[in-house]
Design goal:
Elements: H1 5-12, E1 15-19, E2 24-28, H2 35-38, H3 43-54, E3 60-62, E4 66-68, H4 80-90, E5 96-97, H5 105-109, H6 117-138, H7 142-147, H8 152-180, E6 183-184, E7 198-199, H9 201-215, H10 232-244, H11 246-250, H12 255-266, E8 294-298, H13 310-316, E9 337-338, H14 341-344, E10 360-361, E11 380-381, E12 406-410, H15 411-423, H16 431-446, H17 460-471, H18 477-483, H19 516-521
Antiparallel strand pairs: 1-2, 3-4, 5-9, 6-7, 8-12, 10-11
Helix pairs in contact: 1-3, 3-6, 3-8, 4-6, 6-8, 8-9, 10-12, 12-15, 15-16, 15-17
């Protein structure tokens, strides 16, 4: 069962979320129900936590991202997943965009500054999402449940929602830690009257870790929650992610701890589907077998979650040139996103690879990118398609909005993290097991064992390239390149550094700048070095 935007209306029909520069407040409207009356209904809690989930999927309070959650930028542009995808993918060799919308091209060029509106929107969106979660957490304490006379048999369900809200808050703080390092810190006890204090990257790491460990036993068991709601396995994956990158965040490696969490996920009963790789990114990926690999998804529906971000963006924006939009189940392409020749070269035989994960569209496209703007400069990628397994299009009869759920975490990532942690010397790792996990993915990719590798080929450099082949356009690449010390130096790609052949860039760009307007408004914040 998907948590759709329609559920959110239960809550939004009586309360209004008002986004400000410093905080988000929840206030009763007019002569409608009081807070006490609203929270006597336990279904209200489901509505609020649904808003926390929906904040990752949609950019506003009405269809098509209308009535945007944050000000100063279009609701579609400010969609959480769309912004996060731009930060993690457009800054790398996996994606380049040709549009002239504001400063969007600066992301791939590594020439962004503290006035970049997309970076600013990402910072605001993260803080908005944290505020939504804080609101739910503050309204679901034992004292509040006593005040609202919530029955004992309902409290267990509310506590599950509360644990999920704390997980979702940690998830957004994880994005803040990864992208910006330092963040303004608020929790359910913060005063809206005070400017939030800054929290360092290392302190943020400790907070995220402690929150996840604190709610682990309160989360629904792995594979036992509603589809699209986080469970214990999603929490293990997030812990594994922070531990895999702990050396970047804190200066101290934590690969042993990462392997512990990855093993929990791998042993939780997920499986690599006996189906083509392409099924993972189709309109019916919630029921075509792909869902057996998904650990946590952000859900989309062409009728109920109408957004110009999310997978709608990832389906429309990569279609242009001579591509037939109908073959993607949409009414037209937006002609923006392609990939670089350096990503193409990660596949043997490039556009003629036997690897099914290679989905390049080359008709009328050049591999080399002479200019950034023309869509035909650079191969297109045909990964996300708003088509069901039987070839029929998604639910939206107009072909505007898509049904493709986005896999935040999936088993393939856990397999590759196991292999990487093992190669980095994690206690308990087994090289033969690591090889078997990698070859399981390659057997799906090739349809047989012809793409399998030997033990000698399983190196860290191979893992970085294999992560790109398997997980490209799934918001991992920037983080992976930084962990492997190849984001600013060590690797170049077309138009990195804003030059055609690419160049190395300054190390300070491993962090994004704190938006200038936030530094100016909150004296507790300091700008990241280099900006």
């Amino acid at each position: 069962m998907k948590i759709y935007k329609s559920i959110i209306l239960l809550f939004l029909g009586t309360l209004v979320f008002t986004a400000c520069d410093d905080a988000l407040t929840v206030e009763p409207q007019g002569n409608q129900l009081t807070e006490e009356e609203i929270f006597q209904d336990p279904a209200t809690y489901r509505g609020i936590v649904a808003k926390a989930y929906a904040g990752l999927a949609v950019g506003g309070q009405s269809g098509g991202d209308g009535n945007a959650d944050i000000s100063g930028i279009d609701g579609g542009f400010s969609n959480y997943l769309r912004l996060y995808w731009n930060m993690q993918e457009l800054t790398t060799d996996e994606a380049i965009i040709g549009w002239n919308d504001g400063t969007i091209k600066d992301l791939h060029g590594h020439v962004w500054n503290d006035g970049n509106e997309f970076i600013n929107a990402m910072f605001s969106r993260i803080n908005y999402q944290i505020a939504v979660c804080n609101e739910f957490i503050s309204l679901s304490t034992d004292a509040k449940l006593d005040q609202y006379n919530v029955p004992a048999d309902v409290r267990a369900e509310v506590m599950e929602y509360r644990a999920e809200a704390r997980f979702l808050r940690a998830y957004s703080y994880y994005h803040g830690m990864d992208l910006f390092g330092t963040m303004p810190f608020t929790d359910e006890n913060s005063s809206l009257a005070d400017l939030p204090p800054a929290i360092s990257r290392a302190e943020l790491f400790d907070f995220i870790e402690s929150e996840l460990l604190a709610v682990e036993d309160q989360m629904v068991d792995a594979r036992a929650n509603e589809y699209g709601r986080a469970d214990r396995a999603a929490l293990w994956m997030l812990l594994a992610k922070i531990y895999m990158n702990a050396e970047v965040y804190t200066g101290t490696p934590r690969y042993d701890d990462a392997l512990v969490q990855v093993n929990k996920v791998i042993n939780a009963g997920y499986s690599i589907p006996n189906a083509p790789y392409s099924y993972l990114f189709l309109a019916d990926n919630d029921q075509n077998g792909a869902q057996n690999e998904f650990i946590w998804t952000i859900n989309f529906d062409g009728l109920n979650t109408q957004t110009f971000g999310g997978t709608t963006y990832l389906t429309h924006a990569p279609v242009g040139g001579s591509m037939n939009a109908a073959q993607f189940g949409i009414n037209g392409g937006w002609g923006g996103i392609r990939t670089t020749p350096q990503f193409v070269e990660l596949f043997p035989n490039e556009e003629n690879s036997d690897d099914q994960r290679e989905t390049f569209y080359t008709d009328g496209q050049t591999k080399e990118i002479g200019e950034v703007s023309p869509f035909t400069d650079g191969f297109a990628i045909q990964k996300f398609k708003n088509l069901n397994t039987d070839g029929t299009p998604g639910k939206d009869p107009n072909g505007d909005f898509v049904d493709i759920d986005f896999p935040v975490f999936r088993l393939a990532d856990a397999y590759l993290m196991y292999a990487e942690a093992t190669l980095r010397g994690a206690a308990g790792g087994n090289n033969a097991t690591a090889l078997s996990y990698v070859n399981a993915l390659r057997e799906r990719a090739y349809g047989n064992t012809s793409g399998n590798i030997t033990a000698g080929a399983l190196t860290l450099d191979f893992i970085l390239d294999e992560r790109a082949r398997e997980l490209h356009w799934e918001t991992h690449r920037r983080q992976d390149l930084i962990r492997f010390n190849k984001f600013t130096s060590g690797k170049v790609w077309a138009w990195k550094g804003n030059v055609p052949s690419g160049t190395t860039t300054a190390t300070f760009r491993r962090l994004l700048p704190i938006p200038a307007q936030e530094v100016n408004q909150n004296p507790n914040l300091s700008q990241n070095p280099g900006y």
